[in-house]
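Notebook B, p. 112. Complex prediction, attempt 2.
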Amino acid sequence: MSTFFLLTVTGFGLGAMYFLIASGLSLIYGLMGVLNFAHGAFITVGSYGTWWASVHVFDGVHSTLWRWLASALLGLVFGGVFAALVELVLIRPLYSRHIEQVLVTVGLQLAFVALVQGIWGTDAQTVAVPAWLHDTTNVLGARIPNDRWIEIATAAVVLALLQLFLRKTRYGLIIRAGVENRAMVQALGIDVRKAFTLVFAIGGVAAVIAGVLSGVYFNVVAPEQGTSLLIFAFIVVVIGGLGSIGGSAVAAVVVGLVQQYTNYYASSGIGDMVVVLLLGIVLLVRPRGFAGAVVGARA
Amino acid sequence: MTALRRPLVADWLWPLVVFGALAIVPKLNVSIPKLFDQPISSPGTLALLASCLVFGALALTYDIQFGFTGLLSFGHALYIALGVYLSNIAITDWHWRFWQSILFTMAVSFVLANVLGYVSLRVGGIAFAMVTLAFAQAGAVLALKDPHHWTHGEEGLGADYTKLPHALVGIVNTKNLYWLALAFLAAVFFVVRWAVESSPGRIWQAIRENEVRVEVLGLRPHWYKLQSFVLSSTLAAAGGIVYMLLYNGSTLAVTQPTFTLTLLLMVVIGGAGSRWGAVLGGILYTYLNDRLVAVGSSSAVEGLPHALRTPLEQPLFLLGVIFILIVLFLPGGLAGLAHRGRRGGLRQIEAAVRPSTEGA
């Protein structure tokens, strides 16, 4: 029972990271029709940005907690600006040419990973985080690593903030309307392109948070880490329904849990296969995903 | 008459001349100092040229579905990896004869392409890209986890050279491998020429332009897309076997999603939907990927400040940047340079992947 509980919490922790990545991907796809491979680069900005800042910028700060938090904050600023710049410089000139937009993000992702490997090498780097993050707490007889709670709580806060933003603000309204019917929003005289940049920046920041947390979850940061997280986030987005934040949240938890349970109870690697199988079934039986736009029709 | 004769010359005679000229390369005893470190006929240079030719062919197989049919797949690596691994597993792990292994691999890849193609083509556009990516990822996990101890996971699987034809083993026989790669490229090239100009091939291109219209004409796009997908994937598996022979074994690199993405880069750099474009893109990409490492460590770059030197030492960074520039400014790729003013390359494929809410 304690193992089951540990797997459940860890599954939620993994799902939290998937959600942070998938929420941005889902909004970007829903609004702009762009499958954003550069999200992998945003994750890397988060993981490497935090590591770099904690070694080079805030190395004078004695408390590990404050050093980590300050580095993570700097990473967030980097990531948000970087994501907005990607949209302005690379995506906007190709407005309404979806395939070329996707290809540009693919090129950016490959080039970015190569650049990170060139500068810091292919080896993994360890991020200094407060020691208590890697301590365990005894809950219901299971020894749960503390960082899992942080991941889950962060994702919950981001989910709440995103929902608030989408439901209560004017830009949120424009984004929701744009996901439903972009042509109509434009016909009403609203400049959707501002919303594009905004969605990219928001999605970028969420992916950066995932990158920061991945440095804690996996203990290390590595250049290829973003790419492997990205693939599962894609699966989450499709299962959850493109353009739906709530759908992404549910799908992220389902995928995280399924992966943890099957990797433990069946054998390592089976979890990844089962998730792929799940994707296939969802797409064939219910191309809409749990919620959101019809995948086949939109694409 | 001239109108009839031109495609004959351009499509069959010119390629024959080019491939014929490439065939005598191993017999040339010259060195080209800047382009290659060693003389052309040396095993090192021939091995590089052979991998350029194989990648030219693999890029062309990808172009069948991407450039000619408008199917954006992120899972082409699955079929290449199948050719690379299954043929080697049959030879080395199961101790089968060489020809049996080849035939078995081709049969399996044909069946798998039909099954997975049938399933994944039920969805279109970006969703198709996702499903193919997921299947390829499943294949990559299978090769890595190695449940039956066949692929040897991260170690890779070296081929049992005693089972391979003697003419294809050893450094002295590098020229034979070069000819094998060239013959494979030529075969793929002519198969693609024949396929895309046949009547189903015309329908593939019509689907790329406007799938709804094809459907209105009373044809079933699903069936024709499946044809294109199966041809593309089966040829890719055959290319995987050549790849395995060339590299003397199998490694996990071919199973990775990034491997498909590099094929996509090759096709786009060369020019999507163009036979010469895809081949040229594959050759050029592979050559640059190999040679840019040498540029990175050359004395000219050595003198540069550290901040400039690091990116120049990473071929994939430079190729990624070149790729982005080509997508932004030259969507027809290198082949587009030859046909200025004609709508080609990526612009042709646009309609096939565009969300239909706007396209219609």
